[in-house]
Design goal:
The complex is a heterotrimer of chains A (320), B (254) and C (287). Chain A is mainly alpha-helical and 320 residues long. Chain A is 72% helix and 0% strand. In chain A, helix 3 runs antiparallel to helix 11. The two termini of chain A are 30 Å apart. The C terminus of chain B is likely disordered. In chain B, strand 8, helix 6 and strand 9 form a beta-alpha-beta unit. By secondary structure, chain B is an alpha/beta fold. A two-stranded antiparallel sheet of chain C has the order 1-2. In chain C, strand 1 and strand 2 form a beta hairpin. In chain C, helix 2 crosses helix 3 and helix 2 packs across helix 9. Chain C is globular and about 60 Å long. The termini of chain C are far apart. The chains are: A mainly alpha (320), B alpha/beta (254), C mainly alpha (287). At the A-C interface, helix 6, helix 12 and helix 14 of A face helix 4, helix 9 and helix 11 of C.
Chain lengths: 320, 254, 287
């Protein structure tokens, strides 16, 4: 095999640490049963951040309203369980389908315009959905949220237990499936064309890549995965509330991804772990003012430089 | 006389108060080695932008192989075979040369939308990349990220990327711009070795390159065609010399 | 209905004064400052605290709010913001979100999270009743003050040397620098004045919009709408956008209270869809 073929292959082959990470994830379910609830939260956040990585890290679209799809997934799953049937997997499929469809629809709005316009539009969409959920309180429970979502047993057999073990296994399964799917996507020609769009949209067009269709496709996929994360939240916690659409959530997931690193797919997972741990640590110490430290962290992070902070070996003059 | 591959008819672009392209009618024949020269601000890059669809003309038309492409989207023109390079490198900074070329080749093969197989899985991609990497002396840096490459290598990649599209008409916008003297010959050689059936339109300030490479020349001044003809007749045309002398000494650097 | 129009205009003028600093920052330094609302909040709190703790009369608080926030802006610009101008927009967004979080929680910590009330002086309370129109005195006051400010701004931009230097720098900072303009000083002054105006707006608006630590987050989207729809290349663009927004919001909340801000957001999206560079911007702008 020529050097070129080898290099091309090498980019897509599984690294040892990817296996290690998967192993750690699977093992965590076995070894940490008492922490299942926390781990479940982390995994949901990781999935959400993964979906953002696709549009932010790979396609270069800055969105301040990604929570829109998280929220859609959450309410869709909750309402489906309450009004149609409580089977979690069917509900998941429905929620993902709705989120994906809306993602494709809304993506049309972000195709044109500057960064600021995109920011505004994504922010606007999330805000509109928040308002809608608030006003349609006969359906969504309004400010009180949608309570009492009781899920049926997973695969007809495994009841959701209070300890969260079933929930975590479920979330983990969805996370891994989405991860594998996303991995396939980013190593494919399509995935690289997204990166081309991010790096140089002008050149991407000049080598014959159609910009708009690609953006719609990746936005829809990212929306679907975010919807899955939202659905997981609703299904494993038993309720859905307005805060799934809040700006805070969009900002948080962006921070999680930035902490873990954008553009290599695993940033969401690492970022979620670090973020949740930090959050629990700092909240225990100062519960009310967690946001202050969050804000400070963000400011420092950006001032120092996102890339530099996450690569300690560059702190003293090494090449990144 | 070989067939006309690319032509413009009365191409006009006006915006604000200026008319950077003023009623330009040119023809590029198959296999052409045609240079487009003119003083700074003559509208050469604007013309390229119009030809590639980056800008929309105010009036006039553009024809490729006898088909009207005036309203065709930029990426579709590339699919039809009009490819350009940029005066200022436009590359994918986070990708490697190999990935950039593999993606471009995949786009040419219409498999850039494939999402379930890895880049380069198609057996046609690797050999095409190998050829280009060797031809452009990029094999030793093929796995380095573009943002870490030296300028000369980036310029080579700029042209290699365009060739990866297998153009029928290649628009080269100042290919040696900013390249140090010692590395220019490498690029000249590559341009000279382009396949005979590729029609080349070259924008250049470097007169060495123009007179060594081009067979025919169009001179653009203030957005309009000032003179046209074989390279010998243009080289000896006193009006052309006056236009350039009026500008001052044209430096060899673009 | 005329009262609604009047209220909408007052709201719009207020939004303009609040958001004009943001528009100029974006147009001049190409910096998306989501923390702009924090300066407005600062002005509001300066006023409240000065009035309640120090007994400063309301009218005096207004220039105080302006100066105080302008100083704050002048402090933060060279130390923090200036480093961010060349950064990608994502970094700028993260940075300013971080600042907002810090400001919001900081104020909460120091002053508490209740909504603050301003005791307007007697002569500003109440309404003029002219025929069938009830015109609030305070809202008239707002319109007058903001109107004067707008005219002053327009005059500075058009007639003074600083104004032309500013316009040149917005058009092309590199060329402006090359022409010998001290671009850094222009940035500093502009940022300070923009922040000061936001502070003044915050002080003026505290009574009408409500003042509590979540102010910057609540109104951020409104400021951004003014800038996105109005464009950053003119003064009249954001002014018209702000007026449009003010009237639409007031009318919307009155006629269709069920939908609330829904109308405003939808309107914004529609406008941005049709003209991504903003309703009033010169064509050819945007990055």
């Amino acid at each position: 095999m020529s050097a070129v073929s080898q290099s091309l292959r090498a980019h897509a082959t599984w690294r040892w640490w990817e296996f290690a990470l998967l192993a750690v994830l699977l093992v965590s379910w076995l070894l940490l049963p008492s922490h299942a609830l926390l781990l479940n939260e982390i995994a949901i956040l990781a999935l959400f951040a993964l979906s953002l990585d696709l549009i932010l890290g790979y396609a270069g679209v800055v969105s301040l309203g990604h929570a829109a799809f998280f929220g859609i997934g959450s309410y869709a799953a909750a309402l489906f369980a309450k009004l149609v049937m409580p089977d979690p997997l069917v509900g998941m499929v429905v929620a993902v389908a709705i989120a994906t469809a809306l993602g494709a629809l809304f993506s049309v709005l972000i195709l044109r315009g500057t960064d600021l316009t995109r920011l505004m539009v994504t922010l606007g969409i999330a805000s509109i959905l928040y308002e809608l959920a608030n006003k349609l309180d006969w359906l969504t429970g309004g400010a009180d949220g949608l309570q009492g979502v009781v899920m049926g047993p997973l695969l007809g057999q495994f009841e959701f237990d209070l300890g969260g073990r079933t929930a975590y296994a479920y979330t983990l399964a969805v996370l891994i499936v989405c991860l594998l799917l996303a991995r396939r996507l980013v190593h494919s020609p399509f995935g690289y064309s997204l990166q081309a769009l991010r790096d140089n949209r002008l050149r991407a067009g000049s080598i014959g890549l159609s910009v708009n269709l690609r953006l719609v496709a990746v936005y829809a996929v990212a929306a679907g995965i975010a919807g899955a994360a939202g659905a997981l939240l609703a299904q494993t916690s038993g309720f859905s509330s307005l805060d799934v659409f809040e700006f805070h959530r969009s900002a948080e997931v962006m921070l999680v991804l930035v902490i873990g690193g954008t553009g290599y797919l695993y940033g969401g997972i690492f970022g979620a772990i670090v973020f949740k741990l930090l959050h629990d640590l700092i909240s225990a110490w100062t519960p009310q003012y967690w946001n202050f430290w969050l804000g400070l962290f963000l400011v420092v992070l950006v001032l120092v430089g996102r890339e530099k902070l996450m690569r300690p070996w560059t702190w003293f003059g090494g090449k990144s | 006389m070989s067939a006309v591959v690319l032509e413009t008819r009365g191409l006009l672009k006006r915006f604000g108060g200026i008319t950077p392209t003023n009623d330009v009618t040119i023809q590029v024949h198959k296999g052409a080695r045609h240079a487009l020269i003119g003083p700074n601000g003559a509208g050469k890059t604007t013309l390229i932008n119009l030809l590639t669809g980056v800008l929309e003309p105010t009036s006039g038309s553009i024809w490729l192989d006898g088909q009207d492409i005036t309203m065709l989207a930029p990426h579709l023109r590339v699919r039809r075979g009009i490819v350009r390079t940029f005066q200022i490198n436009q590359l994918f900074s986070e990708l490697t040369p190999l990935q950039s070329l593999a993606l471009t080749v995949s786009a040419r093969l219409s498999i850039s939308g494939v999402w379930w197989k890895p880049l380069g899985a198609d057996p046609r991609v690797a050999p095409a990349c190998e050829k280009l990497l060797a031809q452009f002396h990029l094999d030793d840096v093929m796995n380095q990220q573009v943002k870490h490459l030296a300028y000369g290598k980036r310029r080579l990649l700029e042209i290699a990327t365009a060739l990866a599209c297998e153009p029928r008409v290649l628009l080269l916008d100042e290919p040696v711009a900013g390249v140090p003297e010692g590395e220019r010959q490498e690029i000249f050689d590559i341009i000279n070795a382009l396949p005979a059936d590729v029609s080349v339109l070259l924008i250049e300030h470097d007169m060495d390159l123009v007179f060594n490479f081009a067979k025919s020349v169009t001179v653009l001044v203030a957005g309009a065609v000032f003179a046209e003809g074989s390279v010998e007749s243009i080289a000896n045309d006193p009006r052309v010399k006056a236009v350039y002398l009026g500008e001052g000494e044209e430096a060899a650097h673009g | 209905m005329l009262t609604l129009l009047f209220d909408g205009i007052a709201y719009g003028m207020l939004l303009f004064v609040l958001a004009v600093g943001l528009a100029v920052t974006l147009g001049l330094m190409n910096f998306i400052n989501l923390a702009h609302g924090a300066f407005a909040m600062a002005g509001g709190y300066i006023t409240v605290l000065a009035m309640s703790r120090l007994g400063v009369p309301f009218l005096l608080c207004l220039p105080l709010a302006f100066i105080g926030t302008a100083l704050l802006g002048a402090l933060l610009e060279p130390t923090l913001y200036r480093r961010m101008y060349a950064r990608p927009h994502l970094d700028q967004v993260l940075f300013s979100i971080g600042l907002v979080f810090m400001a919001v929680t900081g104020v909460d910590y120091v002053v508490g999270s209740m909504q603050q009330n301003i005791q307007l002086p007697e002569w500003l309370k109440g309404r003029f009743d002219i025929e069938w129109v009830g015109i609030g005195k305070y809202r008239s006051f707002i319109i007058i003050v903001c109107g004067v400010l707008t005219i002053a701004l327009q005059w500075v931009l058009a007639k003074t040397r600083f104004g032309s230097q500013l316009r040149a720098s917005v058009d092309d900072p590199r060329v402006a620098g090359g022409l010998g303009l001290n671009v850094n000083r222009i940035f500093l002054l502009t940022f300070a004045v923009g922040s000061g105006l936001a502070g003044l707006g915050g002080a003026l608006g505290a009574e009408v919009l409500g003042l509590d630590p979540t102010f910057p987050l609540k109104f951020m989207i409104y400021f951004l709408i003014v800038v996105a729809v109005g464009g950053t290349t003119t003064l009249t663009g954001p002014l018209l956008a702000a007026l449009l927004l003010g009237i639409a919001d007031v009318a919307g909340k009155y006629y269709v209270p069920k939908l609330g801000s829904f109308i405003v957001y939808t309107l914004m999206i529609v406008i941005l869809l049709i003209r991504p560079q903003g309703l009033f911007a010169r064509a050819g702008g945007g990055k």
